[in-house]
Amino acid sequence: MVMRHTAEQSSQHPNHRLNQPNHLPNHGHYSLKWRQKTLVIRTVQSPHAGIQVSLDDLDWATDRLQRSPVDRVKLDRHFSAAELCFWADACAQAGKRVYLSLPSMAALPQKRKPLHWKTKCLIDRLAALVILTIISPILLLMACVIRRSTTESILIREWQVGVRGKLYQAFYFRADMADGTALPHAGWMRRYRFDRLPKLINVLCGEMSLVGACPRRLSDVPEVEAQFHSQLNTLPGITGTWHLASHLDLLDFSFLHQLDFHYIWNWSLQQDLKVLLISASKILAEESP
User: I need a labelling partner for 8 at 20 to 30 A (CA). Which of 133, 164, 251, 289 fits?
Assistant: First the structure.
């Protein structure tokens, strides 16, 4: 895939200029544009254009964002994986909402069936609240099991692309050490998808759905072909039609995008219920992750 970078001159807010550090070893050049309360960050090709930011100095970027009056930040979808994660982390630490700049998609269910979509979102949140309440003893037990195996954090977070390009951090129970070594409980947790139970928190927050499109990791965005960028606007789900496909098919990004488009275009509450029931039966029947 050929990546195209947009070259623009820097247009900085007069009262909140980002002072550029000198001699950065791992850096990028960016243009900054303020649009009302939104800061748009894009990459520039020329080393003499825009501002130079060190990807090794997260504190510097966080501090400058905290000083900015903007409410949200939009990132160029043509950034590298390292740049996307760097700016997402900086925005999170600065308390700014962060989005991926994406082309619009007319086929989104919330545009075609707004009332049904609002019903879905309400059901999602209520169901997530009820499920979390019921399984809270199990969640507490799993947290204790993980804590006995490691002193590292019980939950891990992963940047993913959400509805309308809004970035969020998906929650998982830890199954591996930071060095990649599997914890003793990793096998059965992954077998029954217990490591994904904390994602119900994301559903409760409206960042995910019980049934939706295949979640896209922020670090995978550079691998997505341009023709599929608009599909990143969709609401990701804990399960979906993609979960019913074979593991081999899940390695094919084009196949996944086709599945998602078919799901989006034919979306209905009845279809979501059907997928949810089939997914539950599949998880119980599986003998391996």
Answer: 164
Note down pLDDT in tens along the chain; length 289 residues. Answer: 333 333 233 333 333 333 444 444 478 889 999 888 999 999 887 777 778 888 999 999 999 999 999 999 999 999 999 999 999 999 999 999 999 999 998 889 999 999 999 999 999 999 999 999 999 999 999 999 999 999 999 999 999 999 999 999 999 999 998 888 888 888 888 887 889 999 999 999 999 999 999 999 999 999 999 999 999 999 999 999 988 876 656 667 788 888 899 999 999 999 999 999 998 887 777 644 4
Domain ranges of the chain: 27-100, 110-285
Coil/strand/helix, residue 106: coil
What's the pTM? 0.84
CA–CA separation, 50 vs 56, rounded Å?
Answer: 18
Domain 27-100's class? alpha beta
Contact 97, 63 (CB under 8 A): no
**CB of 189 within 8 A of CB of 288?**
no
Task: Compute the CA torsion angle 253, 256, 258, 262 (nearest 10 deg).
Answer: -160
Contacts of residue 48, defined as CB under 8 A and 6 or more positions apart, other chains included, come to: none
